[in-house]
Amino acid sequence: MIGWEDVYKVVVAVTPLYVALILGYGSVKWWKIFTREQCDAINKLVCYFTLPLFSFEFTAHIDPFHMNYMFIAADAISKVVIVVVLVFWAKCSSKGSYCWSITSFSLSTLTNSLVVGVPLIKAMYGQIGVDLVVQSSVVQAIIWLTFLLFVLEFRRSGTDYSTEKTVIGDSRIISVEPEKDMEGNNITSNALVVSSSTRPSFWRLMKIVWLKLAMNPNSYACIVGLIWAFLSNRWHFQMPSIVDGSVLILSRAGTGTAMFSMGLFMASQEKFVACGISLTAFGMVLRFIAGPAAMAIGAIAVGLHGDVLRVAIIQAAVPQSITSFIYAKEYGLHANVISTAVIFGMMVSLPVLIAYYAILEFLH
């Protein structure tokens, strides 16, 4: 049974995140240290350096030969259920959209298990719960965050490609009259100009997306880490200390710099609750109700039971992934909604998760 000491451990784990958040917020809102361009640069540092190294570091130290594959299958089924529902909503509802489907997927499936989930699940279910949470985090980093990156790149590449203006020599060319000054002299030259816009073919767009993903370290950091985990556990050797130290020097800053970047983003918004009350409530419903409900479907489908079933449902209600905010900010898609979900999610997660624990124990 979870006690006050266990609650204190969770508070100890979460508080440093808010310290980083407040420092980022204050450096723009109160102390005027960073400009908007510098804030964007910091977000790129997090997106392309600290988070990939953080993901590689914790992935490289798992044992892939002792993972609970039924638990992973349940997690996969739950996310497929969410994807199917969102696709149906985007196609069949007048309020549905591709962009909001991406954000809704993040809100309902991507969790911050390592920071909040590990200490709380350990207090509830011991080491077996911790092992399952770490496994779900690794799979999330390798598969689902890569999937999120893919759809974000697909969206941005399709938009960028289809809105390009091209100068070509055919009947669609129109002549633009030169602008004149007060005396009638030309001050601009004649110009010939034409998701007229063209929509790229599917395979052309796929090629663009995969090339961009190949240049994004987030898309393969966990894959490289998993390969190392297989090799090191198969032949029982350690990572060279020089490599380990080089990774750790930035990976240890991954979560902290991500929260700092979120503070910078919050300070640039007009309101503290950047997305408004209704969207905040929408995000909380997806995070704490839709996600666990989908996980319950997946867990029952594969036949999970006992503590493994309960851990699966509770870890699905862990607060929003910080990495999902970094991606939302980098790709310019509803970063205000994701940031609010991260902040409020961590504020309300403790009573919510304890309530889930009590309900599941009562049903047991």
What percentage of the residues does DSSP assign to strands (E)?
Answer: under 5%
- Report the CATH topology name: Na+/H+ antiporter like fold
Overall 3D form: globular
The CATH class assignment is Mainly Alpha
Write the SSE topology:
Layout: H1 4-29, H2 36-59, H3 69-92, H4 98-109, H5 113-125, H6 127-162, E1 174-176, E2 191-193, H7 202-214, H8 218-235, H9 241-251, H10 254-267, H11 277-302, H12 306-315, H13 322-331, H14 335-363
Antiparallel strand pairs: 1-2
Protein model, in words:
It is a single chain. The chain has a single domain (4-162, 201-363), classed as Na+/H+ antiporter like fold (Up-down Bundle), CATH 1.20.1530. It is 73% helix and 2% strand. The radius of gyration is 23 Å and the shape is globular. The longest helix is centred in the middle third of the chain and has 36 residues, at 127-162. α4 runs antiparallel to α6. The chain has a two-stranded antiparallel sheet. 37% of the residues are buried. It has 364 residues and is mostly helical.
Summary of the model, kept short:
The protein has helices at residues 4-29, 36-59, 69-92, 98-109, 113-125, 127-162, 202-214, 218-235, 241-251, 254-267, 277-302, 306-315, 322-331, 335-363; strands at residues 174-176, 191-193.
Supply database-style keywords:
single chain; 364 residues; mainly alpha; Na+/H+ antiporter like fold; two-stranded antiparallel ribbon; globular
